[in-house]
Amino acid sequence: MEWMYILMPIAGVKIFWPGLIVLGIGVGIIGGFFGMGGAWMVTPGLNILGFPMAFAIGTDIAHMAGKSLISTMRHGKFGNVDYKLGVIMIIGTVAGFEVGAQMIMWLERMGSVEKVVRYMYLVLLFLISWMVFADVAKKKKKDREALATTGQVDKLSTGLEWHKTFHKIKTSPRAGWPASSASAAVSSACPPSSTSWAVRPTWR
Questions:
Q1: Which of 29, 130, 167, 176 shows its CA 20 to 30 Å from the CA of 45?
Q2: Which residues are 5's β-sheet partners?
């Protein structure tokens, strides 16, 4: 069954290539079914197939970058891309990627990257699961209260509304994005040698 394995020269490992096809199909189905990127499945999936964690993370980022570029070009033709907002947010994204990459390399030198990243994945997925269930429970509670008071359910009601709390925070300076019909508070911290940006959207 040697023909079912392919050598990945950069990572220095042999991978069960049918598993890569199954992983790609799974990522596509998840993305199409839930309307979200399935890239969060790629890193643990590659690691399970035998990729070292650091290489799995880097490969996932490369996969995500290519897919995002194609999607951006496609949506740009429909006028759905606010380039001004994207350029501002990419400053923090690039800085975050650099910090994350350095942390991964540091953990790899310590020999703890596999364990730490796996546990962090578990914590992240647990928090996401909790937020989904809490959102559903909150929505059902609102629907029951609406039925009891008005006799009908508000089709536009939502569950958790943390975004509204963030939107009430007024800080300056502020920036506007006409293409998105939105404005946002731009919080900047400017140490002598670095600049970081945090953007909180406030929809009009």
A1: 130
A2: 16
> Which amino acid, residue 12?
G
- The pLDDT tens digits for 171-189 are 666 666 565 566 665 554 3
Query: Three-state SS for 156?
Result: coil
Nearest to 121 by CA among 192, 48, 20, 33: 48
* SS percent in the chain: helix, strand, coil, step 5: 65, 15, 20
Instruction: Give the range of the structural domain holding residue 42, as residue numbers without chain letter.
Output: 1-81
pLDDT at 142: 84
User: Considering the domain boundaries, does residue 185 fall inside one?
Assistant: no
Residue 47 resides in a domain: yes
Residue 36 vs residues 30, 32, 106, 128: alpha-carbon distances, Å:
7, 7, 30, 13
Residue 96 lies in a domain: no
- Mean residue pLDDT of the chain comes to 77
Q: Domains in the chain: how many in total?
A: 1
Q: 103 pLDDT band (50/70/90 cuts)?
A: very high
Whole-number Å distance between alpha carbons of 54 and 105:
8
- Of the chain, the end-to-end C-alpha distance in Å amounts to 60
CA distances for 92 relative to 2, 73, 96, 141, 187, angstroms? 45, 21, 6, 37, 12
Whether residue 17 is contained in a domain is answered as yes
What is d(CA 200, CA 183) in angstroms, rounded to the nearest whole number? 9
